[in-house]
Inverse folding.
C-alpha cells in the first residue's frame, strides 16, 4: 500500500478536512511571515529610525529625501525636501515634533515633523555624517567628515526649546580620529559620547572636557554602526571585519562577539528578548555578479547571551545597510542597497523560540 505524497505547502500543516462526498481534500498550513515592502527611495538606504512610540518610521537614503511612513501598515506619509546630497543619519525628539538629519551636502537640518518645513540649518564646511539627540533633547551631536586637511570631528550644539531661538553656536568640538566618524551616540546621563568609524576604534569622549576617556580596538576594520540597548547599559557595534560586538557602556569591556560570514553593516538589540539581529552582505561593488542567496543578504538573528545563530530572514537583493527594532520588540525594519525598506512583523513562532 503506497501512499500518495502531496507537496503543496512550505510551512507545517495545521488541519485537514474532506468534503461530504470525499472527492475533495482541504489542507491548512501556517502562514508565512510576509514583510511589508516599501518602495520610496531611488537610491540605497543608509539609516532607519523609529520614534519613541513606534508609530512613525523615518528612512534615509542616498537620494537626498528623508521619508516618513506609518510603521504598522507602511503607508507613506511624506518626504522632507531640502537636502542636496546623500542623507546619512537622522534622529527624532521624544515628542516626535522635530526631526534632525545629517547630509553629505555639509548641513544638518532641523525639520517640523508634521509639516515637513525645515526651520533651521546647521551649516558646516565638511560633509555631515552622524547626528544624535541627547536624552531630554536639549543637546545634539553632529559628526563632520575629514575634508581638505580638516580632521573628522564631533560638534555638540544646543537644541532650543523655542524654535525661533535656535542658533548655530557650537558648545564643544571633539576632534582627533583619523578617517570619518560613521556613528555617534550619547552615553548614559549625557556625560559621554560614543563614536565609531573608519579607523575601527570605538571611543568614549567626555562632553565637558572633550578628552577621550576610553577607547577599544577590538574591531580590525571599519565600524559601520553603533546601537545602544534600551537601558543604555550596553551597546552593540557592527564592522566590516565580519563581526558584531557587545560592549559595556561604562567600562567599554567587550562582553560578547557575534561572528558572521559576511561584512556586518548594522546590528540591533531587541528591547524585549535576549536577541540581536545582524544585517550586511557582500560588498556592494560585487552585487551585480551575485545571486541574493550567495551574496548573504539576509538578516541573521542571534542569541545575545549564548552568541548562537537562531535563524535568518531573507528578502533583500543587495547588502542590508540599516536595521531598526520597533520599540515594542514585535517587529523590525531593514533597509538595503536595493533601495527597498522591508517591515517585518514577527509571527508567534518567533516568540516561542527558547
Amino acid at each position: 500500500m503506497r501512499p500518495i505524497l502531496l507537496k503543496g505547502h512550505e510551512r507545517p500543516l495545521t488541519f485537514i478536512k474532506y468534503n461530504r462526498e470525499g472527492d475533495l481534500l482541504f489542507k491548512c498550513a501556517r502562514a508565512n511571515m510576509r514583510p511589508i515592502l516599501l518602495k520610496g527611495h531611488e537610491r540605497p538606504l543608509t539609516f532607519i529610525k523609529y520614534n519613541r512610540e513606534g508609530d512613525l518610521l523615518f528612512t534615509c537614503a542616498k537620494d537626498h529625501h528623508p521619508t516618513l511612513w506609518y510603521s504598522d501598515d507602511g503607508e507613506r506619509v511624506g518626504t522632507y525636501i531640502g537636502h542636496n546630497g546623500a542623507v546619512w543619519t537622522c534622529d527624532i525628539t521624544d515628542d516626535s515634533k522635530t526631526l534632525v538629519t545629517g547630509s553629505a551636502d555639509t548641513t544638518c537640518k532641523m525639520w517640523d515633523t508634521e509639516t515637513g518645513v525645515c526651520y533651521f540649518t546647521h551649516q558646516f564646511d565638511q560633509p555631515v555624517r552622524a547626528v544624535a539627540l541627547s536624552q531630554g533633547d536639549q543637546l545634539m551631536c553632529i559628526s563632520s567628515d575629514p575634508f581638505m586637511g580638516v580632521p573628522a570631528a564631533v560638534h555638540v550644539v544646543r537644541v532650543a526649546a523655542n524654535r525661533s531661538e535656535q542658533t548655530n553656536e557650537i558648545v564643544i568640538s571633539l576632534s582627533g580620529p583619523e578617517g570619518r566618524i560613521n556613528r555617534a551616540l550619547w552615553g548614559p546621563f549625557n556625560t559621554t559620547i560614543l563614536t565609531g568609524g573608519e579607523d575601527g576604534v570605538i571611543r568614549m569622549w567626555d562632553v565637558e572636557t572633550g578628552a577621550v576617556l576610553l577607547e577599544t580596538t577590538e574591531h580590525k576594520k571599519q565600524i559601520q554602526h553603533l546601537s545602544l540597548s534600551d537601558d543604555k547599559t550596553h551597546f552593540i557595534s557592527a564592522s566590516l571585519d565580519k563581526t558584531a560586538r557587545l560592549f559595556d557602556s561604562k567600562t567599554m569591556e567587550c562582553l560578547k562577539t557575534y561572528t558572521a560570514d559576511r561584512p556586518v553593516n548594522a546590528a540591533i538589540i531587541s528591547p524585549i528578548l535576549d536577541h540581536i539581529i545582524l544585517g550586511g552582505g557582500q560588498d556592494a561593488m560585487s552585487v551585480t555578479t551575485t545571486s541574493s542567496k550567495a551574496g548573504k543578504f539576509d538578516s541573521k538573528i542571534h542569541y545575545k547571551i549564548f552568541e548562537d545563530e537562531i535563524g535568518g530572514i531573507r528578502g533583500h537583493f543587495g547588502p542590508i545597510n540599516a536595521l531598526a527594532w520597533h520599540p515594542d520588540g514585535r517587529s523590525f525594519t531593514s533597509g538595503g542597497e536595493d533601495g527597498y525598506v522591508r517591515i517585518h512583523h514577527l509571527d508567534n513562532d518567533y516568540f516561542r523560540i527558547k
Summary: The CA atoms of residues 160 and 166 lie 5 Å apart. The mean pLDDT is 91. The chain has one helix and 30 strands.
